[in-house]
Amino acid sequence: MAHRLFEGKEHAEAYLRFRVSPSDHLIQQVVDFVEKKKGRPFDLALDVGCGSGQGSTLLAKHFASVVATDISPAQIEMAVAHASMPNVTYKLSTAEELPLAAGSVDLVTAMSAFHWFDRPRFLQEAHRVLKPHGCLALLNYTLDMELSHEGCPSDTLNAICEEFYAALRPHFSPHLRTTSKPLYKESYEAIPYPHKEWHDERVRRTVPLSGFIGMVETFSNYRALLKKDPKTARRLSSITTHKLMTAMKVTSPETEVVVNLKYFYVLACKPAED
Q1: Where does the chain show beta strands of DSSP type E?
Q2: For residue range 48-77, what is the model confidence (pLDDT) as tens digits?
Q3: What is the pTM (predicted TM-score) of this model?
């Protein structure tokens, strides 16, 4: 079954402000796979569960057209309001009933969204809309991000981060347990295409400390705690921020830190029709 989250306006605004998009290098890896398996032209990409559109915008640099879909009206509204690429069209749609014709798409992506879908139904739909030799890319990262800051031992910062993450683990969605990675592994094994690849990759991003905290606050486990006990959730963020600033010997939450994200992704190529 599909799981509906991230749909409120306030959450959509936080998603746009704090969520990091995949690196240009990671997107290039996806594009290179499409070129190797299918070849040009790159006419149409479909980004499913697009959120506020950060990943869709990256795809637009490589494809003539991008259709980006999400189940949340607030997310689509936010994406349209901040759209920067004229070749991206945003549509309200479920992942299990995609609004495109059969055999029309060169690349289907789901960036940090696939684990919320009805996965078997989505994979059937992706197969339907893909052209022969069209490609599927499923990307996500683990939530145990690591921090570094010049002049401060990373072990010290990451011990504080681990306390933050540990306080949130009881609030994970039951179907995710404590990480979505096994769900992706299961789906990777189940995809019947002969040409498929699993990748792990580190992505480093420099953000303000407040941006790191804000990103964690967009995660489903933090949102679950915030809904259940807003005072405890906000106190947890405040205490973690204070501990990190003290360890870094800084006075501003806008001090930059380097966030190390542990990405994993699946690439698969639909075979030619018999």
Answers
A1: 44-48, 65-70, 88-92, 105-111, 130-141, 146-148, 195-208, 256-269
A2: 999 999 999 999 999 999 999 999 999 999
A3: 0.93
